[in-house]
Amino acid sequence: MDLDVYVTAxxxxxxxxxxxxxxxxxxxxAEADELVALYQRTATHLSLIQSSSPDPxxxxxxxxxxARARATxxxxxxxxxxxxxxxxxxxxxxxxxxxRRWWIPTALLSTLLGVAIGWWIAANPEVQASIGAPAExxxxxxxxxxxxxxxxxxxxxxxxxxxxxxxxxxxxVCLVLGAFLGLPVLWILFLNMLNLGVGIGxxxxxxxxxxxxxxxxxxxxxxxxxxxxxxGTGLKLGWTVIDPGPTTRRAALAQQGRxxxxxxxxxxxxxxxxxLIEGFVTPSGIPTWARITIGVVAELAFLAYVYVLxxxxxxxxxxxxxxxxxxxxxxxxxx
Length: 335
Fold this sequence. Notes:
This protein is mainly alpha-helical and 335 residues long. It has 13 helices and no strands.
């Protein structure tokens, strides 16, 4: 394509579109129709120039022109409480449901890894010795030791806030860094399972595994599920880089990225609940069976939320992505 000839042929249309945009909302009906037609044609022009004869200055000018025209044509929409309700009742649970083929295997394999590390540590005194001196290990595992006092070492409210912040950051990192082929996600998962396995191994070797599980399960079920969902979504995002499917890699990553942002918000709320349990229930004086029951109920409630509301929304076509009107325009590509 001869770029100079193409620019000469269409410059008048671009200038006319720029003129109409400069008049704001003071357009007649015919002029409004003309603006829409010019916007569509200019978007096609931009696509052809980008694919055939990319010129940085011309591309930047037309990109800005198309963006202004799109904002004028589609208008702006303010978020409302209905958007929040729709997100909580359809968008977020549907996104979690649709990614279940990633986070469920992630959860199973990670749990097996944590248990295997714990068994290895418990069965090998030399491994325990490499973790700490005998006096240090006793200080951690004895009744009233560090594993038990950890949950009551700070005021419940501040401890819950700290736990929620740390876990929300870990989940967000899994979602964001998943685009790097999922490798950082695997490392974060390994560190989490290593910490869990060390606790299982040391407390089991001390004959106090039941105490450890009584402290971990109330909040850990929901907390680890949220981490596994984030990790599975991050791995799915990383796989999209390798295999974008029938769409272009850019479009596939944009769709998965938008869904991942929504997942980060939703998982922050889930982790807020687990943080409350960890701050107020785990260190409380209520019986162990009651604390574990609270954790199991919270976990089952989340799974029901995902599989009932999320499954229904997913079958209705909900993907967890933003509305079409709120997405960036995807320009047609030249054949």
